[in-house]
Amino acid sequence: MSESQEPFSYPPIDPINFDLIIVGTALSESVIAAAASAVGKTILHLDPNSFYGSHFASLSLHDLSSYLTSPRSPPAAASASTDSDDVVIDLVHQHICSDAEIASYDESAFLDENSRKFSIDLGGPRALFSADKTIDLLLKSGAAQYLEFKGIDASFVFEANEGLANVPDSRGAIFRDKKLSLREKNQLMRFFKLVQQHLDVTQEEKISEEDMDIPFVSFLEKMKLPPKIKSILLYAIAMVDYDQDNSEICKDLLKTKDGIDCLAQYSSSVGRFPNAPGALLYPIYGEGELPQAFCRRAAVKGCIYVLRMPVVSLLMDKVTGLYKGIRLVSGQDLYSHQLILDPSFTIPSPLTLSASDFPSERLQMLSQRDIKGLVARGICITKSSIKPDVSNCSVVYPPRSLYPEQVTSIKALQIGSNLAVCPAGTFILYFSTLCNDADEGKKLLKAAMNALLTLPVSGNSESILSVQSDSEDTKPIVIWSAFYIQKLITSKFEFISSTPTPDGNLNYNDLLDAAQKLFGQMYPNEEFFPKATPPDDPTDEDDASGLTLDS
Amino acid sequence: MSLRRRTLLKVIVLGDSGVGKTSLMNQYVHKKFSQQYKATIGADFVTKELQIDDRLVTLQIWDTAGQERFQSLGVAFYRGADCCVLVYDVNVMKSFDTLENWHEEFLKQANPPDPRAFPFILLGNKIDIDGGNSRVVSEKKAKDWCASKGNIPYFETSAKEDYNVDAAFLCIAKAALANEHEQDIYFQGIPEAAVPENEQRGGCAC
C-alpha cells in the first residue's frame, strides 16, 4: 500500500526470534518457506521488493524495464546501536542480471497505456511438463489449489532452411506429421517402441546395461537414427543444452539412461491431461504465480511475510563467529537459528572488520560466490503469432540450426493473451540459451529471433514499413524487446544457506531438487511436505487438491 | 455457461489486522465464533454453496492468511476476484481510515476492467462491543464514505453475535454473481476454469 513516492516508515516486526529467516521470495525460497512451515518451524520471510517472486517474478512492462535497467542501490544502513555483542557485517547486493538492452519500436502509446496488462516472466522461458515432479510438488504442498494452468498448444523444433517443424512426440503425432518421410516415421516409431519396451516392467527386452552408460548420442547413432531425428530427440525432447556431437565443448553430455528418463517423462506428459494438447503446461497469469502460491501455503501455516524490507547486515557472534541474526534497513535486529539468502547477496571481500580477532573464515563462502555460467535471456512482444492459429507454443533451436558456430541449443516459448499475461492480440516470446559471455549470448538470441521475427531497426519507422511490404512472408514484427544476461549460481548449504538462481532449463525440476536437498540439509529429520494435515486445522481443506487446468 | 459447471465466485476479504475478517468468515460458514483473538494462522479459504434465484453458486471466500499484517498480499491474492469485501472495526478509527488504502490497493492490484463498476461491500464489524458505547465511527460517517465510492453497500455486523452476517454475505454473493456476468462479456478471450474430467485423489484432475 505504500507508494514509493511517499516517505515510507518501516514497520517494527514482532516477534524478533525465529527458527528460520529467509530473504528473497524466488521459487526455491518460497518452496522452502512452505515446506518448513508445514513442519512447524517459525519463519520470517522477507523481500526487499514490493512484489513476490524475486528472480521468478512476473512483472508489468514498466516494472520489468526498471528492474532490468536500474541496478538497485544498496539501502543505507540505519545507524543502530552497536554496543551489542554482535559483529555487524554489511551485505552487498549484486544484481544477478546484467547487460540489459531494451528497445521499444512502438510508435503509438499502446505499450505505455497497457503496461499493467502485461505480466512478463523474469526467468523465462519456463513451463512445466504435465508429468514432472513440479506438478507432484504443487499437489502435495497444497499450492496447486491457488493456481490454474493451461496446456501449451504445440511444440516445434527449428530446422535450418526449413523453419518450424512439429516435435513428433507421440505415435499419433508421428503418424500425422507432414515433414517426416515414411522412412523417418518408421525409424522413430521403432525407436519409441524400443524405449517403451525398456520402460515396461512386464517386458523382457531391455536396453543393455552397457548401452545405458554410453552417451545417448552414440546410442542413437547405434540405432541408425538420421541426424534430423537425433536432433529432435536430443534437443527438443530431452532438452539438452550443448552440442552432443562436439565433445570438446559439450558440458552436459547426456547418457543413454538419462536420455531414456527424459523421453519417458516427455511421453507420459503428453496426454496426461485430456485438455492439454502437448507435454507442457503454463500457469495462467505467468510463472510469478508459482512462488506466490507457495508463499500463501507458508502464510497459512504461520510464516510471517514482509515485502519492501531490505536486509542490510548480518549479525555474527563476536566470540564464536557464528551467525546470530540480521539487521533490517529500519535498524531493527532480528534473530534466527538459520538463514537463507537470495543468491544476489554477497559480503565484501576481503573482509574489513574492526574486530581483528573475529573468526572470519566462516564467511568465506559468502564472499566467494562462484558463478557456474551465464544464461542469456530475451523477451519480445509481437502483435501476431509465429505460427498462424497457434497461440501458445514452445520452440527449440538445436545446435548448428542457426549457424555453424552455434554450440548450444536455444529454447523459446510464445505465450498469448489467453493466458492472461498480455493484452488481447499480443504475444510474449521468451528466449534463452547458455553462453560464455554476453556478446555470444546476445548473438545467439538475436539469430533465433531473426529466424522467426522481424526486429525493426531502432528509431527508423520506414524500415518497418519496407519490411512489411517485403515478399519474405509475414514474420511477426517485434514491437518491444529486451535482452539480459543472468548469472548461474547454485545453492549452498553452509554456515548460511543460499538458494540457486533460475537455471537455463525449461522446467523447474533441477531447481526443486535443489530446494528439497537444501531443506533436507537444514532439517535432516523432517519430511519434505508431510502428507497428513494437522488435526487442529479445521479450515484446511485436504480434499481441495487437484490441478485446475483450463481447456 | 451454467451448463458447464456450477458457478464458482471468488470473494476476497480485506481490512486491517484484528477487525474480524476471519471471524466473520467462520461465523458465516461454520457458525462458530472464538472469543480469543489470534492473528490469523491456518485460515486459507472457506467455501459455501448457496442458491441465488435459480442458480447454485459456490462462494469461495479467501482469507488474507495474515499476509495483510505488513501489507504483503501479493497480486496473486487479488487475481480474478468477483467481489471485494472491506471490513473495519467500528471501535477503531484507524481501521476505518485505512479503508481508503485497501480500496485503492485492490483496484491497483486486481486491475479490474471497469474500476468504478467493480463490486465492493463494506462491513462495519464488532458493533456488539460494550453495547455500542465504545464505537468511534458513526453509521453516517461510514455511509458517507460508501456514497463517495459509488454507493458501496454497507452492513453493520457482529461476528460474535451472528448479527447481519448472513445478510451481508448474501449481498456479497449477489454482487459477485452480477459482476461475473459482466466479466464474461468483457473477457471473452480469457478462459474459465474447466470441470475436472476425471477426479482422482492424489493425481491430477483435469
From TrEMBL, chain A:
SUPFAM superfamilies: FAD-linked reductases, C-terminal domain, FAD/NAD(P)-binding domain. The keyword Cell membrane does not apply. One of its GO terms (molecular function) is GTPase activator activity. It comes from the Eukaryota. InterPro entries: FAD/NAD-bd_sf, GDP_dissociation_inhibitor, Rab_escort. It is found in: Cytoplasm. Its main location: cytoplasm. The keyword Protein biosynthesis does not apply. Coiled coil: none annotated. One of its GO terms (cellular component) is cytosol. Gene3D superfamilies: FAD/NAD(P)-binding domain (3.50.50.60), Guanine Nucleotide Dissociation Inhibitor, domain 1 (1.10.405.10), Guanine Nucleotide Dissociation Inhibitor, domain 2 (3.30.519.10). GO terms for biological process: intracellular protein transport; small GTPase-mediated signal transduction; vesicle-mediated transport. Keywords: Cytoplasm, GTPase activation. Residues 527-551 are annotated as: Disordered. Substrate-binding subunit of the Rab geranylgeranyltransferase (GGTase) complex. Binds unprenylated Rab proteins. Belongs to the Rab GDI family. This is Rab escort protein 1.
Automatic annotation (TrEMBL), chain B:
The keyword Lipoprotein applies. Belongs to the small GTPase superfamily. Rab family. It comes from the Eukaryota. GO terms for biological process: protein transport. Keywords: Cell membrane, GTP-binding, Lipoprotein, Membrane, Methylation, Nucleotide-binding, Prenylation, Protein transport, Transport. It is a lipid-anchor. Its main location: membrane. Protein transport. Probably involved in vesicular traffic. It is found in: Cell membrane. One of its GO terms (cellular component) is plasma membrane. PROSITE patterns: RAB (PS51419), RAS (PS51421), RHO (PS51420). The keyword Lyase does not apply. This is Ras-related protein Rab7. One of its GO terms (molecular function) is GTP binding. CDD domains: Rab7.
